[in-house]
């Protein structure tokens, strides 16, 4: 990879690829995270909602690296909105992970998952103020959001002090979210690409397979490299060691012409 880290607007650095842990049950999370650490990942992405923080934290603790060498992200559950509620959920997360601080804490979504699109602006503002307090108290190195659209971020910019350092969004070939990407860039917000393989759905795509062959890489490697080429931070997830290794070996460049072709592809999930 060209540069190993992205730098947030507060100068905190975040490794340019992270290990995703959504849908890894707590019982499997210890082995999966240990495999990721063993194979050079130093950035782990979890959430209270994934119900695996306990074993994610245990794997990190048992591994032979100091806390400062590992970057841990967790998230405030999407349905929890409000100042006190946020402080409480944060405590639960750091207790589960058994850590003194988090590297990055995100509002998981602007609305509850079972009521997507609901206007929770006031709740998000109150949650953000609590996150600002935790940040100012030194309990979190960086704070951000996830699944936020431009209007959701704008509400925080209008009513709060700290500009989010990251926005974690679904980003993969066919789902580029150009306007949101440009808005984040303008405000110095790092875009994290979640589901970089479209949760696996892009891996069998014939165009992706053909282009991957040309570069002598796997479809997964092409898709993850694409995120880097678009200046986003990919968070691939796997519980298989050979894939965990492969997903990090993405030190090649995609030509301008091929990038253009990828940018023109339709969203396979639509
Ligand atoms: N903020 C949010 O709301 C949000 C939402 C979704 C995801 N995320 C984050 O983003 C991470 C990744 O997204 P995701 O879990 O949707 O999926 P993803 O990384 O796009 O794809 C994962 C799927 O691809 C398979 N896979 C991984 N590497 C492979 C390879 N090299 N070859 C073949 N198959 C491969 C995995 O299977 P195996 O595991 O069996 O190998 C799994 O089925 C999550 O784990 C989470 O941390 C965040």
Question: Secondary-structure blueprint of this entry?
Answer:
Layout: E1 5-7, E2 13-15, E3 19-20, H1 26-38, E4 43-45, H2 53-62, E5 71-76, H3 83-97, E6 102-107, H4 121-136, E7 140-146, H5 150-159, E8 166-170, H6 178-186, E9 190-194, H7 206-214, H8 219-229, E10 233-234, H9 241-246, H10 256-263
Parallel strand pairs: 3-4, 4-5, 5-6, 6-7, 7-8, 8-9, 9-10
Antiparallel strand pairs: 1-2
The structure holds NADP nicotinamide-adenine-dinucleotide phosphate.
NADP nicotinamide-adenine-dinucleotide phosphate binds at residues 20-23, 45, 108, 146-147, 168, 194-200, 203, 218, 220, 235-240, 243, 246-247.
Features:
alpha/beta; 10 helices; TIM Barrel; binds NADP nicotinamide-adenine-dinucleotide phosphate; 8-stranded parallel sheet; two-stranded antiparallel ribbon; 270 residues
Polypeptide structure, described:
With 270 residues, the chain is of the alpha/beta class. The protein has one domain (15-200, 232-251): TIM Barrel (Alpha-Beta Barrel), CATH 3.20.20. It is 40% helix and 16% strand. It has helices spanning 26-38, 53-62, 83-97, 121-136, 150-159, 178-186, 206-214, 219-229, 241-246, 256-263, and strands at residues 5-7, 13-15, 19-20, 43-45, 71-76, 102-107, 140-146, 166-170, 190-194, 233-234. An eight-stranded parallel β-sheet has the order 3-4-5-6-7-8-9-10. A two-stranded antiparallel sheet has the order 1-2. Strand 3, helix 1 (26-38) and strand 4 (43-45) form a beta-alpha-beta unit. The longest helix is centred in the middle third of the chain and has 16 residues, at 121-136. 44% of the residues are buried. NADP nicotinamide-adenine-dinucleotide phosphate (NAP) binds next to helix 9. NADP nicotinamide-adenine-dinucleotide phosphate binds at residues 20-23, 45, 108, 146-147, 168, 194-200, 203, 218, 220, 235-240, 243, 246-247.
């Amino acid at each position: 990879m060209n540069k190993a880290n992205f730098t947030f607007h507060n100068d905190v650095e975040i490794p340019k690829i992270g290990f995703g842990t959504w849908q890894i049950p707590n019982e499997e999370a210890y082995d999966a995270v240990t495999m990721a650490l063993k194979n050079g990942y130093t950035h782990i992405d979890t959430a209270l909602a994934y119900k695996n923080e306990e074993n994610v934290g245990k794997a990190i603790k048992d591994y032979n690296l100091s806390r400062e060498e590992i970057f841990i992200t967790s998230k405030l559950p999407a349905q929890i909105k409000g100042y006190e509620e946020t402080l409480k959920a944060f405590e639960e997360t750091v207790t589960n992970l058994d850590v003194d601080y988090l590297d990055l804490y995100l509002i998981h979504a602007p609305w509850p998952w079972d009521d997507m699109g609901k206007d929770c602006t006031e709740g998000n503002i109150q949650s953000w103020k609590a996150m600002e307090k935790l940040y100012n108290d030194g309990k979190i190195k960086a704070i951000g959001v996830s699944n936020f659209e431009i209007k959701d971020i704008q509400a925080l910019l209008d009513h709060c002090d700290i500009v989010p350092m990251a926005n974690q969004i679904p980003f993969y070939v066919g789902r580029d979210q150009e306007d949101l990407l440009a808005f984040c860039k303008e405000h110095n917000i790092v875009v994290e690409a979640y589901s970089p393989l479209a949760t696996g759905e892009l891996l069998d795509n014939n165009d992706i397979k053909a282009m991957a062959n040309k570069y002598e890489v796997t479809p997964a490697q092409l898709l993850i490299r694409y995120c880097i080429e678009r200046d986003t931070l990919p968070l691939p997830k796997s519980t298989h060691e050979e894939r965990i290794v492969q997903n990090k070996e993405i030190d090649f460049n995609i030509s301008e012409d091929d990038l253009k072709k990828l940018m023109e592809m339709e969203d396979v999930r639509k």
